[in-house]
Design brief:
299 residues; alpha/beta; TIM Barrel; 9-stranded parallel β-sheet; 11 helices; globular; binds flavin-adenine dinucleotide
């Protein structure tokens, strides 16, 4: 007889367990030292054969050349499919289309399509470029018109801060999927109930595309709490309490971080989730450990 413990998907053997799909997100490094760390992390994670690794597009397109150079090199050298993030803030349609053609020429067929945030900062009113794409849905349509790309878009377990209400938020997500996106990837979240509510709302609205949870391991509580505040993700009190007082104790901080992330991922697995997107911040170790919990081993 199976005990409740062994019937949990996260405790099943490799043969019985569902097949998981993972993707890993990186950001374009600014200095030579940071670039060395980027390739080190990428080379540690690539042998896990993720569905893709993605490289972000700096605020306002500030990393346009670096993102292109990195995704091109990953595509040509690592054997792992690379996805390029792309935003439409502060650029005309012609400029954005030229970036898409650049990706196309480099053999990059996956794009994470985003509106981006105004240069004044997240939360400030967004004014589209007069000749630009007005939002992410329009960008998705524009990319589709240029070629056969695999397109991911953003979704928000706690609703995008600028959406008037949940209906507006889900309508917007539906427009992005209907415009041709294959999947949505969520903003970071720390309470799985928020993610499950988003999925339920999306399904009720007729969205059938996967909504992949974006998992942010907490390498540094102070840093991640700052990111979360800027993008409208909340830090539950119980989470802050787990890291309280650990600023001067990196070893315990790292152990708590891996326990917190493992708890989040395994609870999602036990509720039937099989696809994950990990925000790596160009560090491999915590993400490597989480992927191993999902049964991943280097190929
Ligand atoms: P949209 O889907 O266009 O929505 C933005 C807001 O506008 C929503 O509130 C929506 O409801 C509202 N809206 C849209 N259309 C309409 C309309 N017609 N009428 C009324 N309201 C409307 N940022 C970067 O700069 N670079 C990156 O590489 C990057 N990568 C990201 C990756 C992921 C997985 C996620 C989740 C976010 C990422 N971001 C990135 C952040 C993203 O750019 C911001 O969250 C941005 O504020 C919104 O982008 P969006 O694509 O969700 O916009």
């Amino acid at each position: 007889m199976m005990t409740p413990e062994t019937s949990r998907p996260s405790r099943q053997s490799a043969e019985a367990r569902p097949r998981f799909e993972v993707s890993f997100e990186f950001f374009p490094p600014k200095t030579d030292d940071m670039e060395a760390r980027f390739w080190d992390a990428l080379n540690k994670l690539a042998p896990l054969q993720p569905r893709f690794v993605s490289v972000t597009y700096g605020a306002g397109g500030s990393t346009r050349e670096r993102t292109l150079r990195l995704v091109s090199r990953i595509t040509q050298e690592s054997g792992v499919p690379a996805a390029a993030h792309l935003t439409c803030v502060g650029a005309s349609r012609a400029e954005v289309d030229a970036v898409v053609r650049g990706y196309q020429a480099a053999g990059v067929t996956r794009i994470v399509a985003l509106r981006g945030d105004p240069p004044e900062g997240v939360g400030q009113p967004f004014t589209p470029h007069p000749e630009g794409y007005e939002n992410a849905a329009a960008l998705v349509r524009g990319i589709r018109a240029l070629g056969d790309f695999d397109i991911s878009v953003a979704a928000y377990p706690e609703k995008h801060p600028q959406s008037a209400d949940w209906n507006a938020d889900i309508d917007n997500l539906k427009r992005k999927i209907d415009a041709g996106a294959t999947r949505a990837i969520t903003q970071m979240f720390f309470d799985n109930a928020d993610y499950f509510r988003l999925v339920e709302r999306a399904q009720k609205a007729g969205i059938t595309a996967p909504i992949v949870p974006g998992i942010q391991p907490i390498h540094s509580f102070k840093q991640i709490a700052g990111f979360a505040a800027r993008c409208g993700s909340s830090i539950p009190t119980w989470l802050a309490e787990r890291f309280d007082g650990l600023e001067g104790d990196p070893e315990t901080h790292a152990l708590v971080a891996s326990a917190v992330a493992a708890e989040q991922v395994l609870e999602l697995v036990d509720n039937g989730i099989t696809e994950f997107h990990f925000y790596t911040l160009n560090r491999a170790n915590l993400v490597l450990a989480l992927a191993r919990l999902l049964g991943y081993r280097p190929a």
